[in-house]
Automatic annotation (TrEMBL):
Residues 7-123 form the Acyl-CoA dehydrogenase/oxidase N-terminal domain. The keyword Oxidoreductase applies. Belongs to the acyl-CoA dehydrogenase family. This is Acyl-CoA dehydrogenase family protein. SUPFAM superfamilies: Acyl-CoA dehydrogenase C-terminal domain-like (SSF47203), Acyl-CoA dehydrogenase NM domain-like (SSF56645). It comes from the Bacteria. Keywords: FAD, Flavoprotein, Oxidoreductase. It holds the Pfam family Acyl-CoA_dh_1. Its cofactor is FAD. Residues 128-223 form the Acyl-CoA oxidase/dehydrogenase middle domain.
Length: 390
């Protein structure tokens, strides 16, 4: 087992550290916070464009897409250095990590030029239209319809939980184009500009977002979408959907590991939780990092272990949830304090600083729901790791 990185990787790290030391905005520049996951303040647009131009926005992408064809180990180091400084990786995470990535994988050259590069450069933002009132985890149950009529699609239906849609320029929207096909077939992916006639976006509050709204319900009423906005093949959008959810799968565990590490530092032996809960948190943290390192090494060898990623997501998301719940229980009524009372939010980092434990506990449910619920992760583990029947 090799517990250190080779000289090439460390040279990559040193170059990135030098870039951050020279160019990273400070608090005096980052004066405006992003109000949603599809809103980019002007300073954030400049910072994203600078990263794109220097190949540091998404190092795993080719240079024409703001990267440098970096391997998975270098991508890990890139994220590690951002986490070390407490810097959020980007301020339109779905746009960069899912939608632009989907266009790089499945889109045409024209779609990449028109949509992917502007999203990556921060010239526009994008949101993901997947979930519906009757189709959340069961994406194949979606009912939003798109009928091909000559050189255009006509879209009718509704999406919900569409993060940042009210600030986005375009939605990557999954629609049913063949109602007679079996559930996982007959789905297509469309790029729908949010200023299209018939698109209505309604942001709504959550317990986590009382000041700035992020969630949206989106309605499509006879929305006309050019056929050239079809991403991938007609009726074969399931491949785009599963690719979208899997683009950052390999390193998703790292965000949970960073969260657990921060909690370990914050709790300390005489902190807000009992000794056995603190010990469990430490063990979960080590277990996640060791399992994640093994998965990282496998990925570097070209092994795509989807089921193993489910183990990491399940462990990381639920360990963070257990730890914050323990802190909430131990903190008593003071744990209910609102972040506006107990702290502030940094423009450089979307996490609340000194937030109340109730808010922090509730936010952990994003980890156990988004990107595949814990129940779905358990199904994958049961079938693909343990060999149990469906």
């Amino acid at each position: 087992m090799q517990l250190t990185f080779d000289e090439t990787v460390e040279a990559f790290r040193a170059e990135f550290v030098a870039f951050l030391d020279e160019h990273l905005p400070d608090e005096s520049e980052a004066t405006e916070r992003a109000r949603s996951t599809s809103h980019l303040p002007e300073w954030a647009r400049r910072w994203q464009r600078l990263q794109f131009d220097n190949g540091w926005l998404a190092p795993g992408y080719p240079p024409e897409f703001g990267g440098r064809d970096a391997g998975v180990i270098e991508q890990y180091v890139h994220r590690e250095e951002l986490a070390r400084r407490g810097i959020y990786e980007n301020f339109n995470p779905q746009g960069l990590g899912i939608i632009a990535a989907s266009l790089i994988t499945f889109g045409s050259a024209e779609q990449q030029r028109r949509w992917a590069i502007p999203i990556l450069r921060g010239d526009m933002t994008a949101s993901l239209g997947m979930s519906e009132p009757g189709a959340g985890s069961d994406l194949a149950g979606l009912r939003t319809r798109a009928v091909l009529d000559g050189d255009r699609f006509v879209v009718n239906g509704q999406k919900v939980w569409t993060s940042g849609a009210h600030d986005a320029d375009v939605l990557l929207t999954f629609v049913r184009t063949d109602p007679d096909a079996v559930k996982h077939r007959g789905i297509s992916a469309l790029l729908i500009p949010t200023d299209s006639p018939g698109v209505q976006r309604r942001p709504f509050a959550s317990v986590c977002d009382r000041d700035d709204l992020d969630f949206n319900e989106v309605f499509f009423v006879d929305v006309e979408v050019p056929a050239e906005n079809l991403v991938g093949e007609l009726h074969k959008g399931w491949a785009v959907a599963t690719g979208s959810l899997g683009h950052e799968r390999t390193l998703l565990w790292l965000a949970f590991a960073d969260r657990l590490g921060n909690l370990v530092d914050e709790f300390e032996p005489d902190g807000p939780v009992q000794a056995d809960q603190y010990a469990t948190l430490i063990m979960d943290n080590y277990a996640l990092r060791l399992l994640g390192s093994g998965a990282l090494a496998a990925a570097a060898r070209g092994v795509d272990d989807v089921a193993g990623m489910s183990v990491l997501k399940l462990l990381g998301s639920e360990a963070a949830q257990r730890a914050t719940e323990a802190a909430l229980d131990a903190s008593g009524p003071g744990g209910l304090a609102h972040p506006g009372v107990t702290g502030r939010r940094s423009a450089l980092n979307l996490e609340d600083v000194a937030a109340g434990w109730f808010d922090r506990y509730v936010r952990t449910f994003a980890g156990t729901i988004a990107g595949g619920t814990s129940e779905i992760q358990r199904n994958i583990i049961a079938e693909r790791v343990l060999g149990l029947p469906r």
